[in-house]
Specification:
flat; homodimer; three-stranded antiparallel beta sheet; Dna Ligase, domain 1; two-stranded antiparallel ribbon; DNA-binding; Arc Repressor Mutant, subunit A
Amino acid sequence: MRNTKQKSLILNIVNNSYDHLTAEEIYEIARHTLPNISLGTVYRVLNGLVDDKKIKRIKMSDGDHFDNLNELHNHFICEKCHKIIDVMDSIKFDYKIGNNKIVDYEINFIGICEDCLKKEEN
Amino acid sequence: MRNTKQKSLILNIVNNSYDHLTAEEIYEIARHTLPNISLGTVYRVLNGLVDDKKIKRIKMSDGDHFDNLNELHNHFICEKCHKIIDVMDSIKFDYKIGNNKIVDYEINFIGICEDCLKKEEN
DNA sequence: GCCCTTAATAGTAATGATTACTAATAACAG
DNA sequence: CTGTTATTAGTAATCATTACTATTAAGGGC
């Protein structure tokens, strides 16, 4: 777990953006600072940051997007254009968030299941 | 929007399973009934059923899984083995669901954003 | 500051889920 | 039954992501 300039650059890019960037977009931004950085490195570092819970992965039809953990928030995702909008406020259930119409919502609980907990005991 | 035996078979498979099947798994099951069905058809039909809100897509690292809408429920996803467990009960926030340890949860609101609503008015 | 070990990277090839394409097929309206 | 055309089977192509490997560079010890 060495500190490399690639790692800190990529973490900075995600932490300083509110655009839910893809790996490719992060790669393009990173090249301004490190012209020789490779796309494979971006993917590998992003996976590590997600594993370490430094950033979050948002799975989308056009590939994964990555989000910082600066402020606790959820997401509004447009069914049509797939835009991701941060939802900072507490949940108001009038089927609207701002002027965006809510059609559905999904809650996923992430954790360690019974079977995997047992395996960790060994 | 014609009714084909491929469409009704695939919808039946998803509606009668509690295993959150992938397209490939649905394809293998469908071949028992229609040996010549093609994988492309399974993907196309599944996309249509999701668009028509007859079934739900669950995005996972190993590809999309598909879920029926028989009973309203959320999902518990194991970080280790990526198992998907249905959560039928109301949310109990003791960081456990059954014997599964909750590490995190994510809420996504799906809908039509302000911009797309404006476009629909035209 | 200088080695040395080895984790991490750059560059490229491979993978695999999903989509695109096209000729053939089959709903279903008249 | 017939004609139209949406849908399908089969296959090729796409593209996000991962795997592989020789090379580079953290960073601990001296």
